[in-house]
Hints:
The chain is mostly helical. The protein has a domain at 31-69. It is 77% helix and 0% strand. The protein has 2 helices and no strands. The protein has helices spanning 12-28, 33-69. The protein is rod-shaped. It catalyses: Exonucleolytic cleavage in either 5'- to 3'- or 3'- to 5'-direction to yield nucleoside 5'-phosphates. Its EC number is 3.1.11.6. It is found in: Cytoplasm. This is Exodeoxyribonuclease 7 small subunit. Belongs to the XseB family.
Amino acid sequence: MVKVTDKEGWNYEAKVAEVERIIARIESGDLELQEVFDQFASAVEYLRQCEGFLQERQQQVELLIETLQD
């Protein structure tokens, strides 16, 4: 599994903003059904990336805390 942080130019806030834009487009009702499915699939992938990013950061924080406690 490639770490999210290894992806050049990847940005958590940008992905969250893109998910929000996708949700707004879906809720607008202006998309064709196939576009809704495609946009939803993109949003799910972005959310998976964000989850991976947060898990990586949580592990780093736990390691730092463990180091401080030693």
